Amino acid sequence: MEQDMQQILFTQDQVAARVQELAAQITRDYAGKTPLVVGVLRGSFIFMADLVRHLDLPLTLDFMAASSYGAGTTSSGLVNIRLDLHDDIAGRDVLLVEDILDTGNTLSKLVAELKGRHPASLKLCVLLDKPERRTRPLEADYVGFTIPDAFVVGCGLDYDQKYRQLPYIGVLKPSVYE
Ligand SMILES: O=P(O)(O)OC[C@H]1O[C@H](OP(=O)(O)OP(=O)(O)O)[C@H](O)[C@@H]1O
Ligand SMILES: Oc1ncnc2cn[nH]c12
Ligand SMILES: [Mg+2]
Q1: Is 110 a pocket residue for ligand 2 (Cβ < 6 Å)?
Q2: C-beta of residue 141 within 8 angstroms of C-beta of residue 111
């Protein structure tokens, strides 16, 4: 799989160290609270698992599924909620966890939907932030790494459903998707 990479952007160790820093910050910020940590499937599954195992907090977990990229490298702009939460979130401190914030289409849709359910608070935690492509007025509260406008895979991120299992963040060779 590494032969498909133009470059390794962040190694497994770099990702692990940064995730632990984020978890320590979140643990401090949510002291005394019992957050509901919501992972946005499928892309967030690795980051979510790594992050929560370093949260020294009483917490509950759930997942939503939304998709907008399909088999390509550009957002369709249309976000479908394919899996919803199990329980009501009214009065809960919700932390939405994503692999990447790119155009902002996905998280904008999910934030609007969840705010309508009256949580006590709603914050965003993303492993990667790609601000150059943002088309929505949305910023994350916790960001692992800010990256340039390049299509990356690994740590949950896919191209055409492949590469998600890679333990590092790599920039895909354009020859793979052109
Ligand atoms: O900020 P945006 O431009 O919306 O891009 C970010 C979203 O796109 C990817 O999900 P995708 O729709 O590919 O589904 P997946 O999580 O199942 O891979 C990624 O996991 C984010 O959810
Ligand atoms: O760089 C990227 N790699 C994989 N999926 C997405 C979605 N938005 N941006 C992406
Ligand atoms: Mg996703």
Answers
A1: no
A2: no
User: What pLDDT is stored for residue 43 in this prediction?
Assistant: 96
**Is the separation of the CB atoms in 153 and 164 below 8 Å?**
yes
Provide the whole-model pTM: 0.94
Q: How far apart are CA 30 and CA 37, in angstroms?
A: 11
- Give residue 77's pLDDT: 62
Q: Which helix (H) or strand (E) holds 86?
A: none
**Averaged confidence pLDDT in the chain:** 94
Q: Which residues lie near ion ligand 3 (Cβ < 5 Å)?
A: 43
**C-beta 157 within 6 A of ligand 2:** yes
Band (pLDDT 50/70/90 cuts) for residue 75 is: low
Q: Which structural domains are found in the chain, ordered by start?
A: 11-147 (3.40.50.2020)
Q: Which residues of 157-166 are buried (b: 16+ CB within 10 A; e: fewer)?
A: bbbeeebbeb
Compute φ and ψ for 35, nearest 5 degrees: -70, 155
Ligand 2 midpoint to CA 157 (Å): 6
Torsion of CA 42, 1, 14, 41, to 10 degrees: 0
Does a cis peptide bond (omega within 30 degrees of 0) precede residue 42?
yes
ipTM of the complex: 0.97
Catalytic one of 50, 93, 99, 102: 102
